[in-house]
Specification:
Layout (H helix, E strand, L loop, with lengths): L1 E3 L3 H13 L17 H9 L7 E3 L2 E3 L2 H15 L4 H8 L4 H8 L9 E3 L38 E6 L2 E5 L5 H10 L1 H9 L15 H12 L10 E2 L2 E2 H19 L1
Antiparallel strand pairs: 1-4, 2-3, 5-6, 7-8
Helix pairs in contact: 1-3, 3-5
């Protein structure tokens, strides 16, 4: 798509070019510029001497009528008219009146420009695409005499021990490997090389059961020694005093 219009800087340049081709006497005094700048054009728009531009996005575009309005304003200023007088004459003036005052034989037409690109598609606002589950990767198997690719698969055996294989094991392979590794894990644990999990797949929980049995049979060495009283343990002395008290009460009766 294409759009027609001058930007603000292009419009000011077009006004300067058209003033050079007309009997323009220039500014009447030092307070008025020969050619309006961007600030003056915006002020003319605010007070109604110049129509508001067409906005495309954040860019303002001006057309032939804006050019005629600015030309008429500058020519009237060169003739000594004050801004209030120009405002009363030119505000909402039709194009033919503006063209007569601007003394232009024909109104220039701004060149066509490519319009601003359409906004990008907001992908986050679009509905999500249907999920397609990827095809499962078949396990890697080694043929007899084939060279390995260097890619290894790890099989955890418990206790921080990981068995590395050059092929990808299946679920049945994992069960068989862990079952066969139990004796190896028990040997490693007996030599203090690993501390197997209590209920790990490699030990089947047998190491934990053995440790629990040992702890139940052994006395707790952290228990303090019994306190004695007169050569008799505190508990036994308490029982002895209770018996003596009972006998004394029987005699009193």
């Amino acid at each position: 798509m294409t759009a027609t219009g001058w930007t603000l800087d292009e419009l000011i340049g077009e006004v300067a070019a058209q003033l050079d081709s007309t009997p323009y006497a220039g500014a009447p005094n030092g307070r008025v510029r020969d050619v309006p700048d961007a600030r003056a054009v915006r002020w003319y728009t605010t007070i109604g001497l110049v129509d508001r531009p067409q906005m495309r996005g954040r860019t303002a575009f001006y057309g032939p009528r804006h050019l005629l309005q600015l030309m008429a304003i500058k020519l009237r200023q060169s003739q000594g008219f004050k801004i209030a007088e120009i405002q009363a004459e030119l505000a909402q003036a039709p194009d033919d009146v503006l063209q007569r005052i601007a003394e232009l034989p024909a109104t220039p037409v701004p060149p066509a420009k490519p319009s601003a690109p359409s906004p990008e598609v907001r992908f986050w606002a679009e509905p999500p695409a249907e999920y397609v589950r990827p095809a499962p990767v078949p396990p890697r198997r080694l043929e007899s005499g084939a060279a390995t690719s260097g890619l290894l698969s790890g099989v955890p055996l418990g206790g921080g021990v990981v068995l590395l294989l050059p092929a990808t094991p299946t679920v049945d392979d994992l069960a068989a490997v862990r079952s066969a590794a139990r004796e190896l894990m028990e040997t490693l644990a007996a030599r203090g090389l690993v501390v197997p999990d209590d209920d790990g797949p490699a030990t089947g929980g047998r190491q934990a059961d053995a440790r629990r049995r040992v702890h139940r049979d052994e006395p707790d060495e952290r228990q303090p020694e019994p306190v004695t009283h007169g050569g008799v343990a505190t508990g036994e002395a308490t029982d002895h005093m209770a018996n003596e008290t009972t006998k004394g009460r029987g005699k009193a009766r």
